[in-house]
Amino acid sequence: MNDNVNKPEYYNRGKIEVWEFIEDQGLDYHTGNAVKYIARAGFKDPSKEVEDLQKAIAFLDRKIKVLEGTTNVNTKITNFLDFTETLTSKQREFLENKFNVCVDMLSAAIDNCIREETMHAEKECIKWFHSMLTYSSLIKCKPVQQKVTDLFKELQDIGIF
Q1: What are phi and psi of 13, to 5 degrees?
Q2: What is the pLDDT along the chain (161 residues), one digit of tens a residue?
Q3: Which of 83, 49, 156 is nearest to 113 (CA)?
Q4: pLDDT tens for residues 89-109?
Q5: How far is CA 86 from CA 58, 79, 80, 139, in A?
Q6: Is 140 in contact with 84 (CB distance < 8 Å)?
Q7: Cα–Cα dist 113/119, whole Å
Q8: What's the chain look like in SS3?
Q9: How far apart are CA 50 and CA 107, in angstroms?
Q10: Which of 23, 114, 131, 145 sits most deeply, having the most CB atoms within 10 A of its CB?
Q11: Whole-structure pTM over 0.85, yes or no?
Q12: How far is residue 24 from each of residues 16, 33, 34, 67, measured CA to CA in Å?
């Protein structure tokens, strides 16, 4: 009887199972999966041999990116934020309007915090500051960054940051 969970035939053509080879060689996730797909290519499902080999290549490509450091989260964030040059004027205007709403709401929250000095008022300041930061990071221009700096200083002055 064929055991597709513990001992699938398509991984047992030689003297040892594929996972035994992967463990014996101490292969990492990406390389181990590439070996797995190479070993089963054409045997698990002959009609998917090319697909299995493509999966192996995809795992090897990913491993290379890991080794090169190109999967770094900071790189992804930087690449994402560099899209600002592609914004249309309407998109930029939309983001600037959202930023300005956050600035107005934060200013009101700061005034309220000065008057009330409650935990709720402080939370409102933090909420609007973070919302403002989100839009400022998408707009990326000096006047916006200066406004963020000024409001951050105000929040420091009243003891929130």
Answers
A1: -95, -25
A2: 566 555 666 556 667 788 888 888 888 888 988 888 888 888 778 888 898 889 889 888 888 888 887 655 444 444 444 555 666 888 888 888 999 999 999 999 999 888 887 888 888 888 999 988 888 887 878 888 889 899 989 888 888 87
A3: 156
A4: 888 888 889 999 999 999 999
A5: 29, 12, 11, 11
A6: yes
A7: 9
A8: CCECCCECHHHCCCCCCHHHHHHHHCCCHHHHHHHHHHHHCCCCCHHHHHHHHHHHHHHHHHHHHHHHCCCCHHHHHHHHHHHHHHCCHHHHHHHHHHHHHHHHHHHHHHHHHHHHCCHHHHHHHHHHHHHHHHHHHHHCCHHHHHHHHHHHHHHHHCCCC
A9: 60
A10: 131
A11: no
A12: 10, 14, 15, 22
Beta strands in 47-118 (DSSP E): none
Cα distance between the two ends of the chain = 67
What are the structure tokens assigned to 140, written together?
């990326």
CA 19 to chain centre: 30
Tokens of 134: 């989100």
* 3 state SS of 7: strand
Here the tokens at position 121 are: 């008022």
Tokens of 7: 């001992």
